[in-house]
Amino acid sequence: MTESKKETRRIRFKDSSGMDFFKRYLHDFKGRKIQVLGIEKDAVTLYINDAMEFLYTYTWGEEAYPHEVQEQFGFFTPSEFRASIEKELGDCANILVFEHYLQEGYEEHLSPKVEITDHNGKSVSLPDSTCFIVIEKSTL
User: The organism sits in which domain of life (predicted)?
Assistant: First the structure.
């Protein structure tokens, strides 16, 4: 998940079927309740992490839909991941690599389908999709 949980994103669908896909997703998604902050004829406004959940399902399309709505993509923010690791493993582990980034291909695949803007109407990038963590067992 993205650190700034209260940030919002407006998703405008370029394809008329996009809104129908979103409404079906709202009903079918099992991970958590998606909070819709605004809805228009061809657009929705969501908190950034709810937008992320939807967009990473939308990018995979109909073939993967039955599986994607059963999965929660985002669970922790990067700082929450780090805190959880440190709490659970403490001095027994050393975090060697801790990176989060947007996986290549998502924006290129979604750009023909949606326009994503912030609360000011400015075009923005998708939130990070991947967190890569390497933990070394400590030799205490």
Answer: Bacteria
- List the structure tokens of 134: 């390497």
Cross-strand bridge partners of residue 135 = 95
Tell me whether residue 3 is in a domain.
no
Sheet of 36-39: strands edge to edge?
Answer: 36-39, 43-47, 8-13, 114-117
Residue 2, in any domain of the structure: no
Whether residue 92 is contained in a domain is answered as yes
Are the beta carbons of 1 and 52 closer than 8 angstroms? yes
Position 83 in a domain? yes
**Which tokens belong to 3?**
């650190």
pLDDT along the chain (140 residues), means of 10: 89 94 95 93 95 89 89 84 92 92 87 94 88 86
Q: What is the pTM of this model?
A: 0.85
d(C-alpha 102, C-alpha 107), whole Å: 9
Distance (Å) of CA 37 to CA 25, 27, 34, 40, 45:
16, 16, 10, 11, 5
Residues found in the chain: 140
